[in-house]
Amino acid sequence: MFTPFIERPQLWLTIAMAIAIVAAFLYTANLYIGIAQQAQDELVNVRIGSLQDAFAPLAAELSDQSDVLRSYMRHLQELNPTIVDFDIVSPTSTPPNAWVVTLSADSARENRQVFRQDFILHLAQTDTARSFTFESNQSGERYFSTARAIVLRDGAVSGIVLTRQTLSAADAQIAASTHKASVTLIVILLFLLLLFFRHARIIDYAALYRKLKEVDMLKDEFIAMASHELRAPLTAIRGYVDVLKGGDMPKATQDLSLERIDISARELDSLIVDMLDVSRIEQGRLTMNLSRADVSGTLVEICDTWHMKAVEKGLTLTCEAAPGAFIMVDTDRFRQVIVNLLSNSVKYTQKGSIGLTASADEKYYTISVNDTGIGMTNDERDHLFNKFYRAEGRDVRDQAGTGLGLWITKQIVEMMGASITVESIKGVGSHFIVRFALAKE
Ligand code: ADP
User: Whole-model pTM?
Assistant: First the structure.
């Protein structure tokens, strides 16, 4: 048995916590990856800066020995494979304000015009004491371009060292770390899922335990009440049996005793039937097979059965059930409801009439059972649907009854999605109304 999700606030709490843990992990991982990337970038930057710091004075010294300088640049590039371009550039007037490669580790690049790096080249030209870097992105790969002025002994700037470094190796390392973090996240998620299902189980067990305790309590309560109710008819039967055993007595007394025994035996019988229904309802074992039906035929049929019993008691029973309206009912349980209301009316009416009417408006199908019987006070009406309730007074106590019928009736009516109400005046009569919503086609 798995309790529906919505009924378990603890589970929502677990889910919220799981989401918070994953979010916190993602945030922290992101933060550290950012920090690591920044540190990597800075390291690359410092390294190329130092390289240029060392190279620039050498380039100034060897400014007239381009072949030596070129081979030295090649050597440095071999030592630092992340350097993709290693050039010395100078401003030129053709085209105006342009920069060209005057010397390069790759001689094929010499005399080429330099694009897009003017900004750092100008900076390096004006601030000759340090190097300047700018980041660019080409086809998804990051590059650092770094520029530093080559200052001759007389202070003149003979050119600018311009290097372009790829950051792909550093980025690949970061990507590998991100991959590891993702795998860790998946493992964390799996653990959380495991935890979540364990938690769900524990909550289910807790709910089950609570329900069991509740059922156990209801059972004790029910047994206490039932044994009390069973004792009354049994005592009556034993009393009348003792009277009969007494021997000589008028026939009228004998008949009365036998009739009382019969009433009490029937009372015991219906008490057991009702108790079984009560226990089924309380344990949620009473199932409804609801189907769309026109119940007018069933109502007429029940009326026909009860007609004779009413007539025997000197009562009239009329029945008017409009056909053509459809409601959702469990036919057997519906029959039980109507029989209970009609039998009560016959039982608690000494003279006059009983009427059953059923009619539909746009929304509802309303069934009324009216009688001109003993009726009830407001106080009695308030307790009417309580388990084992029976009004005080001989006119009720002389009739066989368990006090369970109306409680069962109300539960069944509500399980079918309908309602039951009662209007009554003591000594005048009662009016029970059962209302069903009309079933859609
Ligand atoms: P019972 O087995 O006693 O009839 P019910 O649950 O059917 O049990 O009814 C509970 C009590 O409600 C009855 O004992 C009686 O006091 C009162 N009652 C029920 N129906 C009627 C009625 N039609 N007229 C007057 N009183 C009624």
Answer: 0.52
